[in-house]
Amino acid sequence: MIIVWLILVPLAGGLIAWYSGKRSASLARYISVLTLALMFGLVMKILLQDSAAIGMNIYGPWILEIKQEWIPQIGAGFHLAVDGLNLLLLLLTVFLGFAAVASSWTEIKERVGLFYLMLLWVLAGIIGVFLSMDLFLFYVFWELMLVPMYFLIVLWGHENRRYAAFKFFLFTQAGGLIMLVGVLGLYFIHGRQTGQYTFEYMSLVGTSMGRLTELLLMSCFFIAFAVKLPAVPLHTWLADAHTEAPTAGSVVLAGLLLKTGAYGLIRFALPLFPNASAEVAPGCMVIAVIGVIYGSIMAFAQTDIKRLIAYSSISHMGFVLLGIYAWSEVALQGAIMQIVCHGIATGALFIIAGTIQERTGTRDMGRMGGLWETAPRMGAAALFFALASLGLPGLGNFIGEFMVLLGSYRVNIVITAIGAAGVVSATVYSLWLIQRVFHGRDVNILKGGDLAAREMALMAVMMAALIWLGLFPQQIFNISQPALKNLRVADASSGAEILARKGEGDSRGGNIREGFRQ
Amino acid sequence: MRMTDIAALAPFIVLASTAIAVMLLSAFNRDHRVSVFLTVAGLGGSFAALLKSAQLVPHNITSLIIVDGYGLFFIGLIALAGIVVACLSFGYLRGRKVNPDEYYVLLLLAVLGSAILVSAGHFASFFLGLEILSVSLYSLIAYLRSSERGNEAGVKYLVLAAVSASFLLFGMALLYARLGTLEFIKMAGAGASLGNDAMLLAGFILIVVGAGFKLAVVPFHMWTADVYEGAPAPVAAFIATVSKGAMFALLLRFFWHVELYKYPGLVLLFSIISAASMFVGNLLALFQQNIKRILAYSSIAHQGYLLVAFLAGGKESIMAVSYYLLAYFVSMLGAFGVITVISGKEEDVDTISDYRGLAWRRPLFAAVFIVMLLSLAGIPLTAGFIGKYYVMSAGAGSALWVLVAILAVNSTIGLYYYLRIVAALFSEAGERVFRETPAVEFFAGIVISTLTAILFFLGIYPAPVIRIVHCAIAGFL
Fold it and tell me: Which of A7, A22, A74 to probe by mutation at the B interface, max B CB count within 10 Å?
């Protein structure tokens, strides 16, 4: 039942926040914080209570699950389940949920209750996506999380918000529908083979099909997830949506919504279609590296601070894609690490960009300069997160990118080498951002002073998280490792050759992890 | 005629006698409230009667009327839609300078015609039902005589419906000449020996043309937008749902009984019509400024979606069509319901700019409207999503991948214009000051909130309704 509460709590909390927002705006804010605290408690309960079990993997594939009939006539069930993989993402969701609420504390002045309703409902939708183990239910949540996000952008966004919101909704909806076609294809193939028409994930894994069919169905899934991730060339919605969204919207978009794409690939696209995935893996890795390089070049060329961060997301998510399609344990661990750390670092950068915009009234870096003079705390925080996102050792992002490169090196040296260049280019645009905004001549456009205590506290927590992830990554690996093993075993049972091909990489990975532990 | 025949016919008898009763009553005592009450009671009585007839199925009354679960399901749907339209019309007509009583007579007759259509198993009852429906609609569309657009729409509909009826008759004549029967079931046997006969095919195609006009599928869609725009909002709701739904149900029955799936030419023709309807409907809707016109074009696209399920054939096809029509009825009636309620006393409030800022003035209305639009767009948790799922699933199950892909593309295009309306609801009020919205009629309020509740129920927990539909259509196969 605790799993269902994870979705019900934000839904109900949103409604209460909305209702109380009519009386008092700050009441709505506190209720949102309270809701998130409750969600945090639920996640921690799963994490602490079952942490021993996670390591030993005694529950079989799932730590917790709930399975009910929903629409028995079509074989759709209400199946939610937690394993190490989505448990980490749940933690990230709640963590960034706090960040989103805190960052919108003063930014949102109008219709505050409605804002928190939408924010909490987006979180509920995202949690639903992470937990669903029934493809029909997954699709429902996948579509559903778009609606409140659309409203967040269209109602509280910046100048060009309508365009951005439309583009966001249409791109992801198109991707989703293509996925639905793929889901139906898989459903019928499985149904005809076994006589059992079902959307249940565990039943569908291991469905055998012809090569071409598998490739086609796989690409249906891949397109949907690649739009969300985003992979070049399906990324064009991202820069607009991130830029025009209010700060909390950008945090949720960059920190969580993009991650649903990566999660979908890890959870569904590869295990459901192992052979086709192995076949297209080199191509996907090329796409990933193109994303890495393209994202950083575009980031470098931006003058709008939020746009710069948005393009840097494309670059960083390229590493995630690279790690996923390398499909060795090290690379996958790295991808998950990168998912978590990118969520925090980029979320924090968007929050800083939001505070800058709130205080200067512009996002144009050409009009900024020398902010360090008047806002040293903001500058220091920005520098920290810029360093984190360029992959400074000691912070979480470094571990993620390093392990992705390490894992994919075993698979394809050339692609990995080019990808590694992306790490270098990240240095350029990150420092360029700091240079243009915080250094140089003070143009005195900052009104409202340096970061306040609330904002500093938020920054401090996010910094602490990144340092912790950078110094003790093994704790994350311990949580996700059994889940990944399950995924890859499920995969290997129908695509034995992949295991054989990647097996070598694994033993290497084991050693490396030992190295990190020391 | 035995007693059981009368019992089986009860839904029709109740409808017809209510129409007469309302007509007679208005001769003595013109009271809008009584008329609408009687109408709703008649429609409700008809619905209650069909629950009784459901125990007698399948039951053929001569060869004209087939009382089976499939037909009764649609009669139920039509009767309930009729109640919704009647309730909406009450508030709508009360503010206008017309005699409202005859309106309900016409409405009841239109419902009766539709009910006959969905139960027809014979060309005679097919044509009778169609004409009862059409003739009532001519007058309903032009009911507000002072409205220029209404009169124009009425005449347009009259001319086109008459033309389509003659196509239909010509097709029937050709088929009769070739097959020697007017009964659907006997045609299959008679046609089997003829093979790919030119005259036979011509007959079927002419019937498709005639039916196509009523369904407003491309290329027979020209009248739709003008008629929707000109007709009073509740009548437009009726045309969009009941009239099209009844025709569709009939067409499916006709195809099924005559076994037209065996003719590859016809299947190809319908595939082209389906794809064209989806694209033309959705693309033209993008350019409209008038919400009734947008809904008109979107209804063309929805017929295209339905045809995908229609073409799939088999049991899933009937299930998909039934559920989709149910979801479509609820969403369309809800959307038109909001337009009806918001419209002032003078004319319909129907351009997008009229709706700017509605979310801030009337948040509840706007919320209902958004939910209806999202259901039409097929967003999950609404009835429309399950409907869309069924259609796509039927298409995918029969490996109509091209059509399914076109459907997916069109769903995305469709989303754009629904979102345009949604965005307008939230934007700041434009230059044209939003007119004062009248207080909501009690009936209309109840009807719209019920529709919203049904919409969510159908979307969130459809299992019980699916079970009912399964039972209803079980005997059809």
Answer: A74
